[in-house]
Amino acid sequence: DWLEKNANYEAIVDGANIGLYQQNFTEGGFSVPQLDAVVKKLYERSGNKWPLVILHNKRLRSLWENPSHRNLVEEWNEKGVLYMTPHGSNDDWYWLYAAVKLRCLLVTNDEMRDHIFELLGSNFFLKWKERHQVHYTFVKGNLKLQMPPPYSSVIQESEKGSWHVPILVKGNSSQTWLCITRPNVCESRDEAQ
């Protein structure tokens, strides 16, 4: 019901995944600066539309109780950035449902392997994930978002009958394609027009 009334988001953020990213060291914990960097970057990229950050109620309460984070949490709350999942529930289901329902981007490095086995139509889910999941990294404290590709990296046929096959080239960060064309197909279509 809440999502029906608040359906104007272009990105959903897995808050725990981002806050706990690379925090497995002695002084590590939940990184609010990392989460804040993602929220601000998405806000800028979208033309000043806030993303929706989903956090479990235990995590959000601990941020609220920390005086150094309280102002930011209040600001996010006022702007409609936060959604708190209830006690006893898995926050993964909330951010996954919101991203699918709103047909928007999902910012998480979670590969959702455990959810694929629980869903019917896992092929559809994998295609959806490829087109909607935004991966991220922090290199020396700087956020880098890896947006989904503008097209699927699968064999495709063009309107003129050419086949486009994605090929893997070692050391190449961009997609390389092999284009296969049958001249007689292209000529016969041109003659028909």
Automatic annotation (TrEMBL):
Needed co-factor(s): Mg(2+)
Protein name: ribonuclease P
Lineage: Eukaryota, Viridiplantae, Streptophyta, Embryophyta, Tracheophyta
GO molecular function, one term: metal ion binding
EC numbers for this chain: 3.1.26.5
Pfam families the UniProt entry points to: PRORP
Domain PRORP intervals: 2-179
Top-level taxon of the source organism: Eukaryota
Family: Belongs to the PPR family. P subfamily.
Catalyzed reactions: Endonucleolytic cleavage of RNA, removing 5'-extranucleotides from tRNA precursor
UniProt entry keywords in alphabetical sequence: Hydrolase, Magnesium, Manganese, Metal-binding, Nuclease, Repeat, tRNA processing, Zinc
Source organism (scientific name): Citrus sinensis
Class of the enzyme per the UniProt entry, highest EC level: hydrolase
Biological process terms in GO annotation: tRNA 5'-leader removal
